[in-house]
Write a structure and sequence with these properties.
Number of strands: 8
Largest sheet: 3 strands, mixed
Order of helices and strands: EEHEEHEHEEHE
Number of domains: 2
Shape: elongated
Distance between the termini: 44 Å
Structural class: alpha/beta
Helix content: 25-40%
Radius of gyration: 20 Å
Strand content: 15-25%
Length: 167
């Protein structure tokens, strides 16, 4: 049985902390993850900063889900040939990862201004599909409206969050 026949359902074999995680088909989670990690690194390099937005490892289906920003057909063909059958490609990301990093820099620079306006940003980062994920304490709709005014609509995705506490 292969990933084509089903999605893996991982179970721990053995009772120790070093037990192997396998699927009923015999696939080993560690081996699958290692292959997918290599495929993810390869695609990041091959796509380049102009097109690469993000990816997610999908161990259950032995795939790397990939988001690109307006990649040309020639590049899509090259990526599919890089690791055949490994990539699930979405070529509809709204911006490349580098643009999201620029948005993060702008947000970092404006955090004190936002805090003075009552918007307490407790965390932010890129999403795999090309958006700026922002966590705030307080009124999420107000924060969303303010970030929409800063960056344009459909750029930042705001949700409620608590500050991270160190242990």
């Amino acid at each position: 049985m292969s990933a084509i026949d089903h999605e893996h359902e991982w179970v721990q074999v053995g009772g120790s902390a070093s037990a192997v995680i396998r699927c009923a088909c015999g696939a080993n989670l560690g081996a699958v993850a290692e292959v997918l990690d290599v495929a993810a690194e390869d695609v990041r390099s091959a796509a380049g900063v102009s097109y690469y937005t993000g990816c997610r490892i999908r161990s259950e289906s032995e795939a790397v889900e990939l988001w690109l920003f307006e990649a040309p057909a020639q590049l899509l063909g090259q990526l599919k040939a890089l690791h055949p059958g490994t990539y699930v490609i979405h070529n509809d990301a709204p911006r490349p990862e580098t643009a999201v990093f620029e948005l993060m820099d702008a947000l970092r620079a404006d955090r004190l201004t936002l805090k003075a306006e009552g918007i307490h940003v407790v965390g932010f980062g890129p999403t795999q599909d090309g958006y700026l994920h922002v966590r705030v304490m307080g009124d999420v709709p107000t924060a969303q409206a303010r970030l929409d005014a800063m960056f344009g609509s459909n750029v930042a995705r705001v949700e409620y969050g608590e500050p991270a506490h160190a242990c």
